[in-house]
Amino acid sequence: MENVKIIGEIGINANGSVKTAKELMLIAKAAGCDYIKFQKRTPDLCVPEAQKSVMKSTPWGEMTYLEYKEKMEFSEDDFIELFKYADDLGIGIFASVWDIPSVAFMHKLCSIGKIPSALITDRELVEYAREKFDLLIISSGMSTEEEVQNAYDWGKPDVMMHTNSTYPTPVSELNLRYITRMQSIFPNCDIGYSGHEYGIVTTFAAVALGSTWIERHITLDHNRWGSDQASSIEPNGLFKLVKGIRDIEKSMLYEPQKRILFDGELSKRKTLRK
Hints:
There is one protein chain. By secondary structure, the chain is of the alpha/beta class. It is 42% helix and 18% strand. The protein has helices at 18-31, 43-46, 49-52, 65-72, 76-89, 100-106, 123-132, 145-155, 178-185, 201-208, 235-251, 263-272; strands at residues 5-9, 35-40, 55-58, 61-64, 92-97, 112-115, 135-139, 159-163, 190-195, 213-217. The strands form 2 sheets. The protein has an 8-stranded parallel β-barrel, surrounded by 7 helices. Helix 1 links the parallel strand 1 (5-9) and strand 2 (35-40). Helix 1 (18-31) runs parallel beside helix 5 (76-89) and helix 10 runs parallel beside helix 11. The model has no long low-confidence stretch (mean pLDDT 95).
């Protein structure tokens, strides 16, 4: 079985804190993740005009929705610091890019980019990201098969991620068997799985179905403030997730339809058969 790439998605769970982000990065490295991932937005471009002045209650007080988004967003200097920290740790790092300026900035820092589910119908963004990143990942949440096909045609991604964008996703709506459908219609790229469900068992099923990239949101504590915290994995769960994926890989090393008698069985055969 191909080595599965595991992404610890920090996203907005750091709540704009570089310190919290670094704590999560250290945990992801210790657990054995291959990558950590952030979100990169230009709030003034990404927040709809009608939402910008809407008031929102936050841990930092009452503020407009635009001010809140700006509060949550890392600055370019913050990202430079976080990328340096990732390099020191020896873990890969990249981001989901939500707009053209974000692509232009992130491609200076890394060669991997991801188009989030919300933006896969934005042809200009998809094509620009393809131009800038050596490895492009596209998520497929909230999308029809036609929309996913269009994004594939525009971006020629290296990885297509099956996902459901409900946070958290009911397990009955994960539709994991669609992973095999994606493998058949997109044979020239890797198929991955980005999970937003409670727990990790169903993510193991995605690996067994052949997903070669796995992404899960990570958090220090489910009870922290933020919309993504509840459907994220805490540190103990992340360690279990990575170990479980690596064990699945070991259990599927050999070609199908090939019966193998291993040394342990040959020894037991001698004692149990006449």
